[in-house]
Amino acid sequence: MHCCDRTPTVPARPVPPPAYAAPISAQDALKQAMGPARQYEVARPAEETKISASFWNRRTGAVESSHKPSSMQKRKHQINSLAFDCKERSAELQARAAQGFKTKAQTMAKYGW
Hints:
Elements: H1 26-34, E1 53-57, E2 62-66, H2 71-75, H3 79-100, H4 104-111
């Protein structure tokens, strides 16, 4: 038997649990259950968006008022359709931005401080 044939065995030590584990809120648990693709999805607000705009109707020869843009106005990127989209998505963007901000405790827990 050669002296290098045997490798020393080192007994495995159990890994201690972390000293502090941040509690998981119900919202975080729901996000984890939904998976990574839906984690950043934000629910749309229930309120209806209304932006009034006046248009000339050549059939009737009068000015008409509308609250929602038509499909033609959306396709042509008219300013009222862009304003409608902006107002409709503003609440969603604010909610998404608010989710991105973390508290000091969450940030410190991430780095183990």
